Amino acid sequence: MNAPVLFEEKTAANGMRLGFATLNAPQTLNGLSLEMVDLLAGQLDAWARDAGLAAVVLQGAGGKAFSAGGDLHGLYRSMQEHQGQGAWANTHARAFFEREYRLDYRIHTYPKPILCWGHGIVMGGGVGLMMGASHRVVSETTRIAMPEISIGLFPDVGGSWLLNRMPGRTGLFLALTGAHLNTSDAFYAGVADFRVDSAEWPRVVDALLQAPWAGQAGGPGNGAPPPRAINDGLLRRVLLAHEPAAALEPGPLRQHAFQINSLCSGNDLADIYQAIAALKDHADPWLARAAATMLAGSPGSARLAFALQQHTRLRSLADVFRIEYVAALACTVQGDFAEGIRALLIDKDKQPKWNPATLEQASEDWVRRYFEPPWPAGQPHPLADLDPAQD
């Protein structure tokens, strides 16, 4: 059986090394399992301490996706096994969300450059891995989305923090509709830094191995880390040298930004929801699909995503992960998350029975339960040690 994550070190011309981590589950579009999370976390920690390793490259196998999300089948099984026992009894969900969020936060605060090759589909948990990388690279096939409203979850893995930092109110629109970002809109939304055509990627890797990386080539594994600024600059130089010459046309998010900001202005979710719903028959298929996805999605997820963005607007990244952890565990017992997975992936009838069934029922009072810690009183938050000073 192949390992779910492949690790390789390649030696550059000056003796420094690059670490390549490849998500290796192409049959599930590199969906992120707890085993993959643990393997990545352990290797990233080892590479962080290695004075002879200059930078990390994170990529996906198979050519279709970097990562299409998390291990929903495993989470569904755990919810079935612990039905009626409360969120804290679900040890798998507790471990998965804690360790996934730790890994994402580690990438955000990593001491060395991380190049993420966001080729193909990047959704959910894949967004969590990619967004913290110092050098986020997209290709002509990139499609980025956080479509959790369709499965009764919310844009987690730091999504509340990320969406709040997008232009205007576009982040709220994306959370409510699960709309896809193409390559151009990835730049507009601030979730991509560089662009490389997929056919050019092997030459990028070759160029990385010719760069004069700073550090202690062949030095001790626990020596001083390489100078960060120098290696960040070298990585940027290589990527810019392989950027396509043709300019990108504005994507649909940017084209409709004025309308989206108008629709999503204000603090009344019911008004925003109604305004987006009116787009379901719009002549532009991107807008029409966005509205249709929202209307078919979980009203509870819409309320929760909206509440999280409001609640975390001025919070540090570490705080956002802590808040999302509580909300994610609440999702494992409130019903819509299991129902959404059932309808999409288990029975595949695509006919979820959401509860609450309407946005009116998913009220501001109703959503408060998602902010109540499920662990015993007096116990510290499992992510209490994330350091907000590093955000």
Termini, distance in Å?
Answer: 39 Å
| Overall morphology | globular
Which percent bin holds the helix content? 40-55%
Give the helix/strand class. alpha/beta
Total strand count, please? 9
Task: Please explain how this structure is put together.
Strand 1 and strand 2 form a beta hairpin. Helix 2 (72-81) packs antiparallel against helix 3 and helix 2 (72-81) crosses helix 16 (336-346). The protein is an alpha/beta fold. Strands 1-2-3-5-7-9 form a 6-stranded mixed beta sheet, with helices on both faces. It is built from 17 helices and 9 strands. GO terms for molecular function: hydrolase activity. Residues 19-371 form the Enoyl-CoA hydratase/isomerase domain. Its EC number is 3.1.2.4. Keywords: Hydrolase.
Compact description:
The chain is of the alpha/beta class.
